[in-house]
Amino acid sequence: MAFDTTFKLIIAGDGGVGKTSLTNKYITGIFNPAQKITIGVEFFIKDLVLKDVGNVRLQIWDFGGEDRFRFLLPTYVNGANGILFLFSITDNQTIGHIDEWLQILRSYDKKVPIMVVGSKADLEYMRKVQSHVGLQIAKSKGCKGYVEVSAKTGVNVEATFQTISKLMWKHAKRL
């Protein structure tokens, strides 16, 4: 398959928010409840067809969220076309770190499209961050959208990657 474009997508957020689980669910359709933490960065490829765009290749960079890996992130952000910032709806601290993450994530391109993604939507009974709060934070930080996902059930997984891909396409057309 020939590709009309290739996009570099960064997936970032604190450790334990489900970045790798989300990526694996999108790539393979499988949820692994025993997923190990990412050491440094993991790299995935996903080919998709976007309506009105064509054949797109996503280079997905799943960045380890532990503090000890954060020094690597500015290097990996170079050339990013879009970013998914994940936090867990079951943990207030993970959304509380958004300013630190955005400072790093916007170091290369201040206008790169960023979506805020509340993970673990299947754990509604453990919710600490309400949907309206996530949406309000995303808007106040100049992000391009907010969505809640579940890597376990698959809720909004495909739609999230479709949306960020369309946002990256729009951003690339403006450059």
Whole-angstrom Rg: 15 Å
How confident overall, as mean pLDDT?
88
Name of the CATH superfamily = P-loop containing nucleotide triphosphate hydrolases
Which CATH architecture is right?
3-Layer(aba) Sandwich
Number of domains: 1
Distance between the termini: 26 Å
Spatial ordering of strands, largest sheet: 2-3-1-4-5-6
Low-confidence stretches: none
Computed structural class: alpha/beta
H/I helix tally: 6
Q: Helix and strand string, N-terminal first?
A: EHEEHEHHEHEH
What is the CATH first-level class name? Alpha Beta
Tell me the overall shape.
globular
Helix-residue proportion: 25-40%
CATH-derived topology: Rossmann fold
Number-wise, the strands total: 6
Largest sheet report: 6 strands, mixed
Please give a structural write-up.
The chain has 175 residues and is of the alpha/beta class. The chain has one domain: Rossmann fold. The chain has helices spanning 19-28, 73-77, 92-96, 98-105, 131-140, 157-174, and strands at residues 5-12, 41-50, 54-63, 82-88, 114-119, 145-148. The protein has a six-stranded mixed β-sheet, with helices on both faces. The two termini are 26 Å apart.
